[in-house]
Amino acid sequence: MGPMRRPTMTDVAREVGVTAKTVSRVLNDDGPVAVETRERVLAAVTKLGYRPNLMARNMRVGARDAAIGLVVPEMGNPFFGTVAGGVESAVRARGLTLIVGSSSETAGLEQSLIATFLARRVSALMVVPAASSDHRHLRSERMAGLPIVFLDRPAVGLRADCVVSANREGSRAGVAHLVAHGHRRIGFVGDAPASLYTRRERFQGYRDALDGAGLPFDRALVEAGHDMEAAAQATMRLLSLADPPTAVFAGNNLASMGVVVALARAGRKEVAVVGFDDLPLAEALDPPLTVVAQDPAGVGAAAAEMVLRRLDGDRSRARRTTVPTRLITRGSGELPPP
Amino acid sequence: MGPMRRPTMTDVAREVGVTAKTVSRVLNDDGPVAVETRERVLAAVTKLGYRPNLMARNMRVGARDAAIGLVVPEMGNPFFGTVAGGVESAVRARGLTLIVGSSSETAGLEQSLIATFLARRVSALMVVPAASSDHRHLRSERMAGLPIVFLDRPAVGLRADCVVSANREGSRAGVAHLVAHGHRRIGFVGDAPASLYTRRERFQGYRDALDGAGLPFDRALVEAGHDMEAAAQATMRLLSLADPPTAVFAGNNLASMGVVVALARAGRKEVAVVGFDDLPLAEALDPPLTVVAQDPAGVGAAAAEMVLRRLDGDRSRARRTTVPTRLITRGSGELPPP
DNA sequence: CCGACCTATGTCAACGTTGACATCCGCTGT
DNA sequence: ACAGCGGATGTCAACGTTGACATAGGTCGG
């Protein structure tokens, strides 16, 4: 019951009466080994409960760890969870392990997570940047040839591959949908301005749609809320304006939930809504929620493919991949203005 | 642009004109170092872009990796994402890194993930078991003193710590709530029978509540659906029975969504519903969804604390921690039978 | 002015594994 | 009978780092 030392290859070898090298050969299917020896080795392995030490192996072989590090802002947000899932299945097919860490949307934590991944000699790095983080410190890694791919939001201060959603176009389409149904005062509820790439893009799409329809932009209709409750309160502020919006565009999944909750609380079912990013319950809402659906698993998969290409030696210049979005009309965007 | 070798401690040492050991001393704040030497070393470190090699360090020190491996069935499910988030923040406070992998609810993948974690010499293992997996193979690890904690579902064939929700009690309370509002035919939509611990417990709670109220159990009212769409179809089957239920209890978050979607599609708002596990949009549904809320972050945190205690040397026998659930009444459970 | 002592640094080996190369054996072909 | 070959195994060093111990100067008290 003591905290006994883990058995090593040498222990197994001693048990069988051979050298560590022979055990190594058996375990890696390397070089010739007598059938009987192989069997005895395997028996000893299970008997002693031997587990190969990947750290020692990687070090000797000089190879990088067969792991890929992924940094996401929050694990609890299903969007990032699904992205991670998409990455994982693509990466697993190649025998690579995915290591996920969460930065809590904090630049400092993101950096230290990246540092521990690098110290672990991961063979590639995938990052969903935290708001206001800077990636200049990764330049030397890029130079050294480490594959680095950014997801959902591009790198700051670093030319690197990235995979993003068609934020601006999708947003434009979503708002245009509201415009097409007669709305002229359309609120925007999203993240805090300036900080986040996705918020900037989606906001631009919102403005594009207004401009395209010749509608005036009213700063008073733009509100921020970084989580669901804050978004709900932002929505309440919009509704209590002297000249309130007849429709609201929500800039991300949490904002959508906040908007929907606020409208439900206020009993304002007649306000039209379009949300960016689909929600599993969108269909069950009253009215069912029209959304600009992203493809989070697709983003993850595309990023993973990019990484695999880089690992296979693709040295071409950094590329940006845009994953299309899709307007799913369910009703909430088709409500006419009063 | 060549794939040049990463600089090692020796490279830094050569650059400065000292030995690797001195560099090591600087980087670990070990032993005395002249102020000037320290500065020159640090300068060389940044100049060369040196990153310590954790694998080599861990090997030399013989310590286990400062990482904890967590296996979850699916990353995309917000329940597990939130659990992982709870684990992460608790574990990070101790300077440990969390490595998350997903088993896709498959026993085989779970085993191979665990194997790579063990090969990486993680200092502890946390597992949300896949359906129908068996953990006898971890016995030798437990003997060797590796902390292993199971979350949400207990281990199979292994005495080990585990942290679970109050499934049976919560479920009983949820169903009792429906009973209290006059329902006598209450459907159950959950995972496939037998396979999953949580499903068994929650189903028992359902039966407890029926028994407690002297209501008959009708096998026809029990349906299974492993994802949202399947749960929706299961609900449709219940509704089309000759003698349909007037209320439905959903056994997990996906089932809840499926039930709610199905009722919305069928326009059957009068059917009462209580779901196990809270949903972010529960409040925005019509009627707002009454749920038996779990505390996923709390489950993660409790499990992390358990692990930390074990790492601190607590050798007491395996313990089971139960995290309470809470009935949140919002309306859907209070609908009277027609 | 010498030994005790402290500071700053170096030397060496070891962690567990595997590549490069060596060795030993029995068998084949001539 | 002997060279030659291929199969089975061993030996050694090295990967990057650090613990244990050693060394080279300098300071200080008596």
From TrEMBL, chains A, B:
Xref: SUPFAM superfamilies: lambda repressor-like DNA-binding domains, Periplasmic binding protein-like I
Domain HTH lacI-type: residue ranges: 7-61
Gene3D superfamilies: 3.40.50.2300, lambda repressor-like DNA-binding domains
Organism: Nonomuraea aridisoli
Protein known as: LacI family transcriptional regulator
Gene Ontology MF annotations: DNA-binding transcription factor activity; transcription cis-regulatory region binding
Aminoacyl-tRNA synthetase is among the record's keywords: no
Domain of life, per lineage: Bacteria
Coiled coil stretches, renumbered: none
InterPro entries the record matches: HTH_LacI, LacI/GalR-like_sensor, Lambda_DNA-bd_dom_sf, Peripla_BP_I
Pfam families tied to this protein: LacI, Peripla_BP_3
Keywords, comma-separated and alphabetical: DNA-binding, Transcription, Transcription regulation
